[in-house]
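Quick one:
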Amino acid sequence: MENNRFVIPDEMRALTLDGAGPDHLRVQRIPTPRPGPHQLLARVDAAGICTSLIKLIEQGSEHPLLYGWDISRYPIILGDEGAVTVVEVGDALRHRYHVGERYVIQPAVEHAPINHMERYRNSGKGVQKIAVGYTLPGHLAEYILIPEEILAADCLVSLLDDGMAAAHVAISEPMSCVISAQDHHVHLVQEKPLAARNVIKGLKPGGVTVVIGAGVMGRMHVELAMYYRPRVIICSDLIQERLDIVQRLFAKRAEQLGIVLLCVNPAQTDPKDLINEVTAYRGADDVIVAVGSAKAIEVAQTYVGRGAVLNLFGGLKRGQDVVGFDTSIIHYQEINVTGSSGGSPWDIARTLELMAASEVNAGNHITRIGDLEHAPQFLEMIKAQVLDGKAVVYPHRRTTEILSVPYWTTEDERHYLQG
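Output:
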């Protein structure tokens, strides 16, 4: 194996977990992995902090995606969101991959384990899905080993634009979850009574879209919704500051696209009244519940119009996930109820396409910047619900300061990495 462009150190810093609970979480120096013949080694240029890590840290080896992996014996490297650059290529892969190429890794790897079979319960028999940052090495480290499972599942996605900011690339994964969710919307339309029904995939163009929840994922839904060019987008949230962010980030673009963007606080105005006003009491065409709230799901049912799609994007905790549903709405209004969990490699690729075309701007959703050592603090902030937006760390940029930013541009990143 040759490497004539990057100096790979013997050790690297990584955020590891060796038991259940935050006391088992630490940034430490560990040996830098080296790739086998069918593997790659990549430098982590930037990594996002995902809320799903909270559950992993709390459950430790009991997490369902670890399949019995004993992290007290075999600690794991966390981090399912990142942007990487290949720094070393295994001998058998030189015809396909090259040092210096930039990629995104789809963390949900739909493939059976190939490596470390003995560490899985029952030697991994029956396991068909593994994940980066769980039993596969994660992005919250200076370098990441890309093993055979990722390549076999086509989970290594190349960039369309090599000039993309690493921070933007790093959060293409959460944005891809939104891409997947809205791609699940299906509308049946007839041009006239005797015409056959046709299928429209995605949000209904010229329709009315409602997004319930203006947190970071809700804001991603609002931004992506504009790509489908609905006539009206209504965003609802009980926290006025979040609605103000929606207006600050997206009002100008919505106006440029001829989309009416309305924000409503249910504590002040009933969203149903606003929906009735803009639809002449016909109901919304697409309703996305972007919060994990049973009450929000039950209320959202009353917002839909005939032939609409109701998307249950925000998951509920196990044991609290049974909600009341008016089946007559499904029956007589002929609505579709859908949901999605994560994305696929295609969703990552599609996200990169939309980013390159300036249809979505990942920088709108980044609000904290820091070093790898700040990752535990960011996770504490997420758990305490005091971090509204995405946090990104640059593992190779050492700093003691956490930056709070309204957004994060390519130019911001360039200056930051030069500082």
